[in-house]
């Protein structure tokens, strides 16, 4: 067995052990009511998720959140890459774009949500908040990758007669892809959080709406069922984009 394969198996086992301990603690804390009625046992939450009568409710909420997540993620990713490329190709704009993206990221989403509702409407607010979260991560990752090309390689392109655009397409952009893929992976959970926060401000459907309604009606198992669904979606996206990151890292290393 190779060293790499052994390391992967060890990492997988340790990760599974950590998840198992967390789930076991969840069940024990819920059964013993160590945190009161606000922390139900995991088996009670899973039983609610497995109730066929509830599946349509969960499916509608999940579909609405995934739709907003997809739209917001794509908008944030594309705009972040374009802004980073613009800053890289036009150095005079870089400082302004860096500061603007940092300022936007520093503003809490919960403060921006009312403005988005005013200008975009309640339906578009979850996707807009997701796009903002993804934009910053994509911008930073792409900028970092584009600036990682060693100076001797840049000089070689110039010596061979390559233009600035040639260097960008054939040298800078491929070098940025592994870092960008890593940023895409990190942006997925942030995008889902943005969607859920946006749904709290009056969206008609979604996991965030389900959480708020369950909280207001003190339906604690339903609340944690929606939270568990959100965690599963986040972990699934993180894992899938991790595969993409692994492929891109091997292809463009």
From TrEMBL:
The keyword Aminoacyl-tRNA synthetase does not apply. Pfam families: BPD_transp_1 (PF00528). It comes from the Bacteria. Residues 58-241 form the ABC transmembrane type-1 domain. The chain crosses the membrane at residues 12-29, 71-90, 102-121, 127-146, 223-244. Its main location: membrane. It is a multi-pass membrane protein. Keywords: Cell membrane, Membrane, Transmembrane, Transmembrane helix, Transport. The keyword Cytoplasm does not apply. It is found in: Cell membrane. GO terms for cellular component: plasma membrane. GO terms for biological process: transmembrane transport. Belongs to the binding-protein-dependent transport system permease family. This is ABC-type nitrate/sulfonate/bicarbonate transport system, permease component. It comes from Microvirga lotononidis.
């Amino acid at each position: 067995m190779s060293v790499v394969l052994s390391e992967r198996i060890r990492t997988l086992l340790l990760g599974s052990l950590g998840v198992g301990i967390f789930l076991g603690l969840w069940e024990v804390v819920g059964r013993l009511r160590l945190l009161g009625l606000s922390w139900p046992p995991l088996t009670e939450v899973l039983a609610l998720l497995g109730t066929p009568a509830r599946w349509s409710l969960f499916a509608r909420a999940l579909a609405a959140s995934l739709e907003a997540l997809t739209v917001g993620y794509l908008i944030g990713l594309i705009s972040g890459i374009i802004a980073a490329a613009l800053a890289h190709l036009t150095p005079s704009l870089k400082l302004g774009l860096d500061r603007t993206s940092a300022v936007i990221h520093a503003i809490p989403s919960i403060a921006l949500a009312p403005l988005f509702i005013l200008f975009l409407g309640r339906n578009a607010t979850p996707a807009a908040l997701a796009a903002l979260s993804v934009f910053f991560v994509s911008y930073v990752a792409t900028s970092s990758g584009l600036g990682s090309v060693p100076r001797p390689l840049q000089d070689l392109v110039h010596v061979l007669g390559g233009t600035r655009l040639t260097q960008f397409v054939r040298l800078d952009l491929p070098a940025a892809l592994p870092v960008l893929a890593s940023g895409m992976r990190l942006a997925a959970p942030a995008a889902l959080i943005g969607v859920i926060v946006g749904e709290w401000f009056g969206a008609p459907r979604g996991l965030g709406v389900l959480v708020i309604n369950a909280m207001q009606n003190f339906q604690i198992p339903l609340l944690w069922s929606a939270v568990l669904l959100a965690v599963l979606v986040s972990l699934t996206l993180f894992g899938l984009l991790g595969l993409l990151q692994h492929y891109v890292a091997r292809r463009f290393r």
